[in-house]
Design brief:
single chain, Alpha-Beta Plaits, 2 domains, four-stranded antiparallel sheet
Amino acid sequence: MTYLSSIPINPLRKEGQRLLSNRQRMHAALLGGMAVQPVKGRILWRLETAEHSSRVLILTRSRPNWDHIVEQAGWPGADGGDPKVADYSPLLRMVVRGRRFTFRATLNTVSSSHNPSSATATQEKHLAAPSRRAVHVGERTASSQISWFLKRAADEHDQWGFTVGRSESPTVQIIGRSHERFTRRRGEPPVSLNLATFEGELQVTDPELMTRSLLEGIGKAKAYGCGLITLAAAGGADVVVG
């Protein structure tokens, strides 16, 4: 079975601050919520922060336990401090061709290119190698990030099993953007994320592919809180999940 969890994070606690500011630490803490170790299947997650609250959403392939996060970084025993864990199966049964949902997803807007307009020294080294491997190029402006999304989910494109209408009048917008750069381990090259949170209305075009996108996530940097799609019923109805 698959479960979607929501854990309130207390930004006033030291461990809460550490989790909210360090994506690698958050990923490690979430893996610790699974009883069977090492965790073989991918978990998907997304941070959501507002003026007075922060939470992390997590999709797991088995039922988790988040007591360690609540005790160290949450509000143990407080009203509204308990994590919520919901069975994901009812939502998956709703994924049928033509069904509309409102959605939200934070994605790392990066593309592969053999001819970037302004390659870094590291990228030039990769491009000059005999293998001629493509390099990752991040989209940093709002307009390029929207274009990046529409190339995958508008007009005749349904790379993820859904579309957001026509590119000239899409049913999607960006509600948050950031650029993050951090080092995983000493001596390793830094990780660079170009993040955009997309929100709007989608229509299912390929239920099997859409289900795979929901369960496996979309895009890159999934270990760092990207790729999770959450859905609600379209038209302002009650939230389905997430």
